[in-house]
Specification:
single chain; about 280 residues; alpha/beta; Rossmann fold; Hypothetical Protein, Haloacid Dehalogenase-like Hydrolase, Chain: A, domain 2; 2 domains; 8-stranded mixed β-sheet; 6-stranded mixed β-sheet; 10 helices; about 30% helix; globular; HAD-like_sf; HAD family phosphatase; Cof; HAD-SF_hydro_IIB
């Protein structure tokens, strides 16, 4: 069995419930890189929210890659060069932001070191009976400073890697089709958790980013192992020759995976790598 690249989702996959990489998983992934396997982290997170984990895994030493914003950007960890980028144009971003005004969702966009929202104090939503400060969570996770804009659509002057919305899961389940309806043929829209629904440019997903960057490096899909847990991981699991779903993954992912490993709290990545490699 030849595996030249390991592609990992972050939340729910590489990271445990405490948002940490376990010592066993860390050691296994560093060892794999030392043996010549390229490590790729692929997440819906912004690039700034992934760098600390790349540093912990010593990815800069081995030209590891970061696929951020669900495939809108690819970064070389060693040089920090941008290898691929596909974002929403200003006009596309404005149209989505204007349309979202009629929905009871918290909208978040970023530029540079800042995350922009309408109201930094309108930050809570309920998830499974627990109140979550979602704006603080996203700002801290992405290492962003917060900035308010009364009208995000009017003030937009830059390309967006994605537009993130958050709301109570029942509300999104009921309204997401209306949110995406005007853009169904022109943009991508997807759940990245049942309380997150986000917009990216057309044809942006993790598989497209992998195909654009890894195949020119001589790494074919049959030589890739992709591991994930969520709906936004489906494209990369379908693309890679070895597709691994975590035990805590959504059933949709388990149904298409070639293997199901242990959960993110039970060193599922280390377990499947030791089994297959």
């Amino acid at each position: 069995m030849t595996i030249k690249a390991i592609i990992l989702d972050l939340d729910g996959t590489l990271l445990n419930s405490e948002k940490n990489i376990s010592p066993k998983t860390k050691a296994t992934l560093i060892d794999a890189q030392q043996k010549g396997i390229k490590l790729v982290l692929a997440s819906g997170r912004p690039t700034t929210g992934m760098i600390q984990h790349a540093e912990e895994l010593e990815m800069a030493k081995h030209h590891g890659l970061l696929v951020s914003y669900n495939g809108a950007k690819v970064i070389d960890c060693q040089t920090m060069a941008e290898l691929y980028s596909r974002g929403l144009t200003v006009s596309e971003g404005k149209a989505v932001l204007e349309h979202l005004k009629q929905f009871d969702v918290k909208v978040m966009i970023d530029k540079g070191n800042y995350m922009y929202v309408n109201n930094v104090f309108a930050d809570h939503l309920m998830y499974r009976g627990t109140e979550i400060n979602i704006i603080e969570y996203e700002a801290r996770g992405g290492n962003f400073l917060l900035c308010e804009q009364a009208d995000l659509a009017e003030s937009l002057d830059h390309e967006l890697s994605k537009i993130l919305t958050a709301a109570d899961s029942d509300y999104l389940a009921e309204n997401h089709k209306k949110m995406m309806a005007p853009f169904e043929q022109t943009l991508n829209a997807m759940f990245t958790a049942d309380f997150y629904f986000e917009f990216t440019a057309k044809n942006v997903d993790k598989a497209q980013a992998l195909a654009t960057v890894l195949q020119p490096m001589g790494i074919e899909p049959a030589e890739m192992m992709a591991v994930g847990d969520g709906h936004n991981d489906r494209s990369m699991l379908e693309y890679a020759g070895f597709s691994i779903a975590m035990e805590n993954a959504v059933q949709e992912l388990k149904d298409i995976a070639t293997h199901v490993t242990l959960s993110n709290d039970d060193d599922g990545i280390a377990h499947i790598l030791n089994e297959l490699l």
